[in-house]
């Protein structure tokens, strides 16, 4: 388990976290500043809204499922996109995450105002998120101390995991020690 919050790391909701916005969620940290707070996106909440309904020009570049993901409860009327570049190149319309973490070294944000054609053939995978998760300075650290989140390392396949709804169990199962057993926790903890 990772010690500190960092860009490219994962926040995994503990079974104690029952906030419907974050229950059993896996959040990829996109920005973290001790003074300014933390921003991330929930990776495992595909919505029922097809990308073609909202951003049809981007649909051909989206990695399945081709739906918007519920990135979090903040600014749900706006979208942000994450994409992986196959090489070390930095194409126009794409900005690398500010991290030295190898697991997300080729992951970056896509400018959805740019023409999709400029990224055609430049990116390998992409997902679009409606909204994001945000915490003010010290808020996330308090939630972690209260037992709401595990902070763990990400792996390259996490952002575009083929079965997003299974990502929570998948991430926990690969952890060492007792944390791996949390993956077996039933959806209703009172049934344990």
What does this structure look like?
The protein is mainly beta and 192 residues long. It has helices spanning 51-54, 139-145, 167-173; strands at residues 10-13, 26-33, 37-42, 46-50, 67-70, 74-84, 94-96, 107-110, 125-135, 149-152. Strands 1, 2, 3, 4, 5, 6, 7, 8, 9 and 10 form a ten-stranded mixed sheet that branches. Strand 2 and strand 3 form a beta hairpin. The mean pLDDT is 93.
Main attributes?
192 residues; 3 helices; globular
Q: What is the CA-atom radius of gyration, in angstroms?
A: 16 Å
Mean pLDDT comes to: 93
* Beta-strand residue percentage: 25-35%
Determine the fraction of residues in helical runs and give it as a percent range. under 10%
Parts with pLDDT < 50 across at least 5 consecutive residues: none
SS-based class: mainly beta
**Helical stretch tally:** 3
Helix/strand order = EEEEHEEEEEHEH
Largest sheet: 10 strands, mixed
Q: Globular, elongated, flat, extended or rod-shaped: what is the shape? A: globular
- Give the strand tally: 10
Distance between the termini: 24 Å
Give the helix/strand layout:
Elements: E1 10-13, E2 26-33, E3 37-42, E4 46-50, H1 51-54, E5 67-70, E6 74-84, E7 94-96, E8 107-110, E9 125-135, H2 139-145, E10 149-152, H3 167-173
Parallel strand pairs: 5-9
Antiparallel strand pairs: 1-2, 1-10, 2-3, 3-9, 4-5, 6-8, 6-9, 7-8
Describe, in short, the structure shown.
This protein is mostly beta strands and 192 residues long.
